[in-house]
Input
Amino acid sequence: MTQAQLAERLGEYQSFVARLESGQRRVDVVELIELGSILGFDPAAAVSRIAD
Output
């Protein structure tokens, strides 16, 4: 999936996705849940791995 495709599904601009990807912007909880839904991952499992 391209940045432009993800941005479209999120209802955001491509630059928003580029900032997320580069680490210039952090993902909030609501965005993490939406990203999980779009990209097919479990946000709770992702957070659990970070917390360990």
